[in-house]
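User: Structure tokens for this complex, please. No commentary.
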Amino acid sequence: MPLIAITDVRKRFGANEVLKGIDLDIEPGEVIAVIGKSGSGKSTLLRCVNGLEMIDGGSIMVAGAQLLPDDLHLRALRMKVGMIFQQFNLFPHLTAGRNVMLSPMVVKKTPKGEAEVIARKMLERVGLAAKFDAYPDQLSGGQQQRVAIARALAMAPIALLCDEITSALDPELVNEVLTVVGELASEGMTLMMVTHEMRFAREVCDRVVFMHQGRVHEIGPPEQVFSAPKTPELQQFLGAA
Amino acid sequence: MAYTFDFSSILDYTPVLVKGVGVTVELIGFGAVFGVALGTLCAWVRTQGPVWLRYPVSAYVEVIRNTPFLIQLFFIFFGLPSIGVSLSEMQAAILAMVVNLGAYSTEIIRAGIEATPRGQIEAGLSLAMTRVEVFRYVILKPAFQRIWPALSSQIVIVMLGSAVCSQIAAEDLTFAANFIQGRNFRAFEVYFVVTGIYLVLVLLLRQLLRTTGWAIFPKRAAR
Amino acid sequence: MTAFTTWDILRNLLLAARWTILLSLAAFIGGGVVGMLVLMMRTSRSGFLRGLSGGYIELFQGTPLLMQLFLAFFGLALLGINVPSWLAAGIALTLWSSAFLAEIWRGCVESLPKGQWEASASLAMRYTEQMRYVILPQALQVAIAPTVGFSVQVVKGTALTSIIGFVELSKAGTIITNATFQPFTVYGFVALIYFALCWPLSKSSQLLERKLNAAHRHH
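Assistant:
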């Protein structure tokens, strides 16, 4: 049974239909890369999966449970599916450690001592154990993004949604983040990543989804999608990318 | 007629002045704490609270901001007894100050809340926090940091406005001034000195607020 | 004792409100003129003038308006100068307004990008020419909303002049309350009339600010 089942999902912003019926099943442990031009709907699709955007049609099931727009269901969903943002969105008034500890303590009512242990472990996991007491503005972009990953991991999610998580980073910092993601993938984490990093997608992902004008245009394993694009749109996209 | 200044006659009334300062401090102390608390609550209502509460809160804010403090004070002290609510001078004065500062801080805090970058809220939601938890842990403190200077200014303004409480015989610094000059007939000297005391109080209050800001908020960019 | 109708109360209050409006206008306009002078001093090249105007502003912003009114009225009276309450009220409110307006306008001038000063300087303009042709016209745009916003403070400030005996709306309220023993009704009406005067000004200020922010984004 797929971990994330996206069935005929539609989404419009005003008069503009951004998602025109998306069908996608993601199996547990799969790593999916979603690629496409700006405006193709890839980020919107991702944001629908954790309820930051409400769908107008179709359905989304996560771990067998239907995604419903009420707060109780959304909260339960977000405890299972984490998100990493392009702009990191770390909480600037909290140290790295407290950023990671906050949600377990508040949402899962984890006692402070235990939350701190989890936080230290997660920061260690992303290679930032020494930065527990540092504030976000003392960290580089790559470090901030890794703290963001640790923060999402602290909730013990079954899947992670990554929305262009390296696009806002200086080139030399991209690798440290992708290394962490690669490790997560090899450990069996289910990942759905909107990305421009084609090389990473080719190396780490199980399947690549090419979106074009609100639809899944092509889908397949990376060797197939990158080396033998079937449609002219994908060929053009890869030529330009 | 040549007028000779005589400031020394004020010295005899030092205890009166001290009491006046004490009462003024009491007024702004309670006024600031409860006023800001009320303002935070109302700001929450206006940004995230139940819609049916928003109209009364807006009405409250608009009425207070568009009427003089003196009239608010008179209404509370003289007007309320006729519907059965009787308050002492201090109670009425403090209530008026809380209500007044509450309205102004509602707007100030609301601006701080609305300036929260959307990504912060989304990150909080993505971590499965409810809207209330996001408000409390992610939005509130950075919002206060953003508006601390504006809020501090408003608190100083309300402290200066507390002089008006003397009109309902709350024994604040202005009341002390009127008391003394009524006895030593040295109006100019007395008002001059008391004005100076207010200046000192303002400086101290500003410094207190600044220090409190440094203590509460880490010097981090909470943009 | 004659019974007062609600209309009697309201009518007398409205008549007194004329003086509130008059005093507000006088203080606002007077304050604007003096404020402009203070602004010039505050932004001048002379450290002395900047310090002097800075002290002036600090004085009027750091002390209660009520104290300023007392000093103007009782203080001057004892110095042998017989000051009618309306004059003391007018002078005190004018000076008070001038301090606040000068600070508001200074903020507007300083909010302009440095590039405006640099460009005009590189075109060989003198300070007065920069102010006149480049800075002030732009600062004026930004200043309209907060200046209208301050007018509300002036109207509310006139209420304090009742304490030194000037018969405007608040004083009328006190007099009528003492005559009718209906403080709830009387002060309720007083509040209503102030609200009717102030709220349109507040709203205009908000609308102007929204319009100007939209305009700024097109720069």
